[in-house]
Amino acid sequence: MPPSICALCTANRAVILRPKNHQKLCKPCFLITFEDEIHETITSNNLFRRGERVAIGASGGKDSTVLASVMKTLNDRHDYGLDLVLLSIDEGIKGYRDDSLDTVRQNARDYEMPLMILGYDELYGWTMDQVVEQVGKKGNCTYCGVFRRQALDRGAARLGVQHVVTGHNADDMAETVMMNLLRGDLARLSRTTSIITSTPSAAPEAKAATTEGGLPSITTIKRSKPLKYAYEKEIVLYAHHKSLLYFSTECIYSPEAFRGSARALIKNLERIRPSSIVDVIKSGEDMARLVPGNEDACANDCATNASATAAEDEVQGCGSAGGKSSESMAKMEARLRENAKAEENGLETEITSVTVEMNSLKLPNGKNKASRASDSQPRRKKKVTQQVMGTCERCGYLSSQSICKACVLLEGLNKSRPKAEIGIS
Amino acid sequence: MADTGDNVHLTVEFSGGLEMLFSNRRKHSVSLPKISPKGTPVTIDFLVKYLCDHLMKDSRKDLFIMEDNVRPGILVLINDSDWELEGEADYEIQPNDNIMFVSTLHGG
Fold it and tell me: How far is B15 from chain A (nearest CA, A)?
């Protein structure tokens, strides 16, 4: 095969075939094009304002490493005037997070950004290692996801930062769209497709709320995804060609997570037609706009969405988007198989049981009180119909329920924690 | 490394998490016959099968290949160039080539 020439500079040898438009680019042209497109996403969505302090949610993985690098490059090049900091969450998983945090520390040195690491033990009194010891390896991703979501917000509040950017990429977005379509969750579809998931303006009550120290309260934290339209392939190639150091070992508690069905589907679609990833995102956005009664029909839910769902959209959990899919998709598939079997055997399928199952889908198999608590959710939902924005009675975090998911999960954990101190002295 | 006799020497690299399937080593020196048993020059396709049969100690072949092809989501770079620009699996391996397999599937 004769070498291809770069479509932009028409001088260098092309080394990259862009998945979204089949453009052939050389290394320098690719790097600048990739950065320019992120810049375009940032400016056309008005993601930042001058002087803003922004925390980059950093896991040490490819996405957040590339995000940190690109943010620094663009902030310098286009003079955004942003004050960038790195924020990492330590779930407390020995042999996994320890190592990835070393990568984040290196990033902090390389990009000259301050770094804050916040641990689950510090926030919740439980490390993930302890949670797994308690609940087992099935369903632990739910805890991790719920805890991480709040942890980023709490960490941001401590840093005095009102805006957190995360490394969600186009493949993640397409996968989320697919998942929500397959689940028929139209309400969530409309929230998760937006580039900003939580804004102070969408949370009027919370806006005023500040902690005693005058720091922003956790309810005013805004989230955005500057890499929303960036292909995973290009993110990896960007890291490769810029020799960025990133960490790529799978979480020890979900070693097979990346084999999730939705993820595999997206990767297979990409192989057939690379533009399908962006097409799926666009379709998701368009469908979200068509969701009936965007204002009224989902008043129960959506009214509080802009930020309350902030807590929900990452419920599924682990750092790799694959974790979410495999976790809940596997359960969904098992349920579908069971239903099919039941039909074959002429057994009745109770509709009610299905609804209950859907509700507890995100929760572990009823091993603790947490899943039982979810059974009462539908009733509670009705009560909050008129509420614009709820906060958790216990921790003050934004929640559409009277008690937020993290507190529900913690209650389950704490109830079953052995109370050693009551023992014989 | 020079090209000697009937073998072609090349460097194979794994990253993005794939190294765990190959003895946790990133860089491997590999020597292939110049001509495959079919009588044709060796290609990436041949290399991938060779790696599965000889280099991979891990039993989870399906994390690397799928239906005899490189698993979707794994990028292949031939001397730092996207294999899609080089003929993909049909690319004929040259002496001293550097073939890199990068997984995009692992956590962000």
Answer: 8
